[in-house]
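Protein modeling request. Please complete all fields; requests missing the sequence field cannot be processed.
Requester role: graduate student
Desired output: 3D structure, token encoding
Chains: 1
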Amino acid sequence: MHEMAMVRSVVDIVLEEAEHAGATEVLGVCLTVGYSRDIVEDVFESMFAWMCRGTVAEGAVLHLTRVPFTVRCEECGRIFPVNTRCRDTPRCPQCGASHYRLHSGMEFYVNDIEVKTDPTAVRALAS
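Delivered output (127 residues):
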């Protein structure tokens, strides 16, 4: 259940940013997750909802964007997708080289947090 630690990190970030923004409610959270993170989306979303109970983020909608594996050819610089389940070494579709570095698929970050604030609330600023 590695999802639990990942969800806990997301919830901590969301709550911290919501407090910083003076949010009365978190409406939505946009999260980018690379395929290498190997999460079960339904489990992740359920844990997110469970961990947000009793907070300003309770009821927030989680929007997950998955990022596939891509590599950058070291010969010509072309970026192309790879199927990690295929045993054949992929070759660059542009130059045929098989030397490349991982370009995407490792992502895990919060893109955006949609919040509702109370416009009548007054916050004291530290002097």
